[in-house]
Amino acid sequence: MTSTEFKNRFLPLHKELYRVAVRMLGDSNEAEDAVQNLFVKLWERRDTLGSIESDEAYCRQLLKNICIDRWREMRRHEEQSLDEETAAICDETYSEEEINDKQRFLKAFLARLHERQRRIFMLRLRGCTYDEIERLTGLPATSLRMTVSRLKRELINCYKQKNG
């Protein structure tokens, strides 16, 4: 397949694929990266693409797999940074068992949250300003402040209930 054939066949699908990636990943930058990875994979497989019945269906499935891999990587990174952050917050005055207990509690709390809430909370926990979170999520700063405030209150209440 020549580059002209490739462009004529697959580039018209870019906008639709981008929209699918944004819906799956919730981040325009991640979505653009995922679509670029898709086109790289398609280009690498260009010699075997002649037998495909539906270009759109093939691209959507490949993109879905790429997005799932990216989502899993983001989740793994979130969990690793959460462990590092809670370890940094808990100084030497806490035993290792207490630190592990706090990490388990925080992970359980975050697991109960909706994906968007979890992402907002993690960004704020990492020290992002509301303006930065607004740029990353597309949500208005006032809504972000209310969400973070509610989540903090909920976290405190859950912790009080757990520890009496």
What does this structure look like?
The protein has 164 residues and is an all-alpha fold. The protein folds into 2 domains: 3-71, RNA polymerase sigma factor, region 2, helix turn helix motif (Rna Polymerase Sigma Factor, Chain: A), CATH 1.10.1740.10; 90-163, Winged helix-like DNA-binding domain superfamily/Winged helix DNA-binding domain (Arc Repressor Mutant, subunit A, Orthogonal Bundle), CATH 1.10.10. 80% of the residues lie in helices and 0% in strands. It has 8 helices and no strands. Helix 2 (14-25) packs across helix 3 (28-44) and helix 3 (28-44) packs across helix 4 (55-89). The radius of gyration is 21 Å and the shape is elongated.
At the first level of CATH, what is the class of the largest domain?
Mainly Alpha
User: What value does the average pLDDT take?
Assistant: 82
Q: What is the CA-based Rg, rounded?
A: 21 Å
Number of extended strands: 0
Main β-sheet, in a few words? none
Shape: elongated
Structural class computed from helices and strand pairing: mainly alpha
* Element pattern in H and E: HHHHHHHH
Task: Please give the count of helices.
Answer: 8
Distance between the termini: 67 Å
Q: In the CATH scheme, what's the topology name of the largest domain? A: Arc Repressor Mutant, subunit A
